[in-house]
Give the backbone structure.
Amino acid sequence: MTREPIEFIDLKAQRRHLGDRIDHAVTRVLNEGRYILGPEVGQLEAALAEFCGAKHAISCGNGTDALALILMAEGVRPGQAIMVPSFTFCATAEVVAWLGAVPIFIDVAPDTYNMDPVSLESGIATARHLGLRPVGVIPVDLFGQPADYDQLLPVAEAEGLWVLADAAQSFGATYKGRSVGTFGMATSTSFFPAKPLGCYGDGGAIFTDDEKLPDILRSLRVHGSGTDKYDNVRIGMNGRLDTIQAAILIEKLKIFPGEIAARNRIATRYNEGLGDIVRVPVVAEGSTSVWAQYTIELDRRDEAAAALKQDGVPTAIYYPRPLHRQTAYQRYPSAKAGLAVSDAIAARVLSLPMHPYLDEDVQDYIIGSLRRFVTGK
Ligand SMILES: *Cc1c(COP(=O)(O)O)cnc(C)c1O
C-alpha cells in the first residue's frame, strides 16, 4: 500500500484546514506596518485571557522568556532555590540558572508524570539543608495534563513559596473544572509551532490574576521601560511577541476548541487500540488533557521505536534523560528522597503521532504496527 508519509505532528494538514485565513491575517499586518506591539498583540491578549478565564494575559517572545520574565518580576537571585521537576524540557530549570538561583530537582508521580507532592516536600527540606532559601515551585503540566494543584499548592503555601505553573504543553486543559492559566501566582505557556496552540515561529504568554505583576511584566519585556522607552526603571529584556505571530494566533485560537476535541477523540482511540498491550496514558480524575503528547510506556522501548520506524511510523522520546542526568544540570541538587520515577520512566516512554488531523485509517495503521511488535502477530 502506498500512502503519504505519516507525520508526527501534521502542521500542513492544519494549514489546509485553515484555508486562506492566516494569509489574510498576515497580509493585513504587512499592510498596517505595525510589526512590533501592533493592535493584534493586545487583541490576542484579550482573547487568550477570555479563553482561559485569567484576569490578565501578557504575551511574550516564547515560553522560555515567559518563565524568565516571571522569575525576573519576582526578583529571583543567587542564594535562592526553586523546585522544578526533573522529568521536563530543560527550559523549566534553565531560567532558574539564568538568574543565578539553584534549581532543585523533584521527582514525578508514576501515573501522570507530574510533580510529586511528597518529593516536593523532600526537595524543600533539601534546599534548606544546603543553606539555600526556597522561594518558589515550578510544576509542569506534562504532555498536556495539569499538575495536581490541589496537592502542590498547599505544600508551597505552608512553606511560603509561590507557584509558577509551566503550562507550555497544557494551555486549553482543565483541572477540576478550572482552566489552565488560573493556578498559582502566574502561568507561563508557549506557542512554539508543535505545542497544542502553536504559531508559525516563536511565541509565548503569561497569565495571572495578580494586579501588580502585569505592569512589571510589560515593562520587563521592553527592556524594563518606565514611562517611555528611554526611561529604564529595571533590567529587562527584549521579550515581545511579534504582531504577525499574534495575528496568526488569533486565527488559530478560533479553531482551538475543535482541535482539543479532536485530540481527545484520537487519544481515546489509541487507548482502546493499545490499552491491553502497553501502558497507555493516565489522565487523573477531574482533569482534562490537550494531548501535547500521547505517551505510552513499554518494555524494549528502543526496539519498538525502530520497528515502528521500519513501518514508516515516526515516534519521539520525551524525555530520554531526566534533567538531573544531563551534563549542564547534573551539578544541581535533587530532592534527598531521590528521583526513582524520573529515572525509571525515561527508559520506558514512547510518544506516538498526535495531532488533531490524524485520520482514523492512519491511526489504525499505527496501532497495528505497534500491536505486531508487542504481540508478535
Ligand atoms: C516547550 C516548553 C518550554 C519552552 O517553550 P519555548 O516556547 O520553546 O521557549 C518550557 N517548558 C516546557 C515544559 C516546554 O514543553
